[in-house]
User: Which sequence fits this backbone?
């Protein structure tokens, strides 16, 4: 639009509705740092900052892609005859202002576009967890831009745009069980497959380095998720409030169920387990919170907690190092929510917005909804898996864009290799300690023969230093030096390692 005559807009919108959408978009954006804190806490300390960086840059990539052509491909209003993807009529947000007066009566189109942009940002931020502790960041940014274009935008168009084939077929997906949850989980799992397993031993026993950050991240996610689901109605109405309550119920039952299962096995209450269950309940509520009954959410939360807890073992059977359990907590939970739409969706719940008509699911005798939901899940999962694999394969073959770091960089940690900064100062201090050694009571020589010109890694320096350290005796009486080694050197190893084993044996395991 090019004008120079002091044009004034005459369109008026409902102020409460516009504020509701903008507030919803803001809280969905607030989920991004929540994901960053969650992922950082779940990782080891030497890669804690890199995951926060990956999540934030995923958001930057998402916003750029959405403005560039993402919104046009996903929601172009002039592509109603195309059932697969939109067109480029709104390239660069061209003419995305107030929108069609017949469609956008109470809020402008740009408010809707901004709200949907945050959904893409959250999706890409979830996928960023796949890079944990071994993925290079630049290739991942390239991957995310391409993924948003050829995977997210088509599937968002399928289910949310009036011309999409899933929309016309009657698929029930309230806030993104397919485009957000299943897509992020499948893409993250495939990306993890191409990255391969982390090289360090005893992978199954690696523990989160900061459970407090895990709890903080989960709390922020829960807070943002409330309007992630409620504001999907785009107007403050009865359906948005119902979705708000369904989200809470599902999260509560998911968290309690997962925590009880873990307690049965460990006889201890797990904070990480509680947070994992809450997230599974929230994910399951994403496609269903605006469709199913409240008691349906009670059952859904319990089922999501049980199924997703046991689904964490899938990665071991498939031998894929899904470091942050994206498949179990987002993919499987998203499937649970979509299936519950077929079982417990009610026409009177869907009609609470005063606009949408749908026969619901089995609860209201619409039995064909089950195969519609299953076909939708299969189509989204299959398309995402195949296209993501192709993208990863091609990018990994491009010189300079290899997806994975080398072995030495992995041992040093992603913070040092990819960021050059650390989440904690003592990580850098500890690295220098083992690189240079300590001259105390003649037990350590300076650098133990290792200089900065050598190519030895931190672990090599540590192993060399350990050759002159005292070992554990049979009475478990630790010397001061050994106590420090026990507390710091191998904090990532399983606590089940017998304390009678010598330091040399632990070092051998770590290599």
Assistant:
């Amino acid at each position: 639009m090019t004008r120079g005559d002091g044009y004034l807009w005459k369109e008026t919108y409902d102020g409460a509705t516009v504020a509701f959408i903008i507030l919803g978009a803001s809280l969905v954006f607030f989920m991004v740092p929540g994901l960053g804190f969650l992922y950082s806490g779940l990782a080891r300390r030497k890669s804690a900052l890199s995951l926060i960086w990956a999540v934030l840059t995923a958001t930057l990539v998402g916003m750029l892609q959405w403005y560039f052509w993402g919104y046009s491909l996903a929601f172009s209003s002039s592509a109603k005859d195309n059932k697969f993807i939109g067109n480029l009529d709104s390239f660069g947000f061209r003419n995305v202002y107030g929108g069609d007066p017949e469609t956008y009566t109470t809020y402008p189109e740009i408010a809707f576009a901004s709200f949907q942009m945050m959904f893409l940002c959250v999706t890409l931020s979830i996928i960023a967890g796949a890079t944990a502790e071994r993925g290079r960041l630049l290739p991942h940014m390239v991957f995310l831009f391409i993924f948003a274009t050829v995977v997210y935008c088509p599937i968002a168009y399928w289910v949310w745009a009036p011309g999409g084939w899933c929309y016309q077929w009657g698929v029930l997906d309230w806030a993104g069980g397919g485009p957000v949850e299943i897509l992020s989980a499948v893409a993250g799992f495939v990306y993890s497959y191409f990255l391969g397993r982390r090289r360090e031993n005893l992978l199954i026993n690696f523990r989160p380095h900061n459970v407090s950050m895990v709890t903080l991240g989960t709390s922020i996610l829960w807070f943002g998720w409330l309007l992630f689901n409620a504001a999907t109605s785009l107007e403050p109405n009865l359906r948005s409030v119902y979705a708000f309550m369904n989200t809470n119920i599902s999260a509560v039952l998911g968290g309690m169920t997962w925590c009880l299962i873990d307690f049965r096995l460990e006889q201890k209450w797990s904070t990480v387990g509680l947070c994992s269950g809450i997230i599974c309940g929230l994910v399951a509520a994403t496609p269903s919170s605006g469709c199913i009954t409240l008691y349906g959410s009670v059952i859904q939360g319990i089922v999501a907690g049980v199924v997703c807890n046991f689904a964490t073992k899938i990665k071991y059977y498939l031998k894929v190092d899904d470091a942050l359990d994206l498949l179990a907590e987002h993919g499987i939970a998203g499937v649970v929510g979509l299936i519950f739409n077929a079982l417990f969706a009610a026409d009177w719940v869907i009609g609470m917005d005063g606009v949408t008509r749908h026969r619901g699911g089995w609860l209201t005798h619409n039995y064909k909804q089950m195969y519609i939901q299953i076909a939708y899940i299969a189509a989204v999962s299959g398309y995402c898996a195949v296209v993501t694999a192709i993208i990863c394969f091609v990018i990994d073959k491009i010189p300079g864009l290899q997806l994975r770091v080398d072995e030495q960089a992995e041992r040093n940690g992603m913070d040092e290799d990819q960021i050059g900064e650390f989440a904690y100062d003592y990580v850098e201090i500890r690295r220098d300690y083992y690189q240079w050694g300590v001259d105390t009571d003649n037990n350590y020589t300076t650098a133990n023969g290792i200089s900065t010109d050598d190519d030895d890694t931190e672990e090599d320096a540590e192993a060399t230093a350990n050759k002159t350290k005292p070992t554990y005796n049979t009475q478990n009486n630790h010397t001061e030096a050994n106590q420090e080694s026990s507390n710091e050197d191998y904090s990532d190893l399983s606590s089940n390692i017998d304390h009678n084993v010598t330091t040399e044996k632990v070092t051998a395991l770590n290599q």
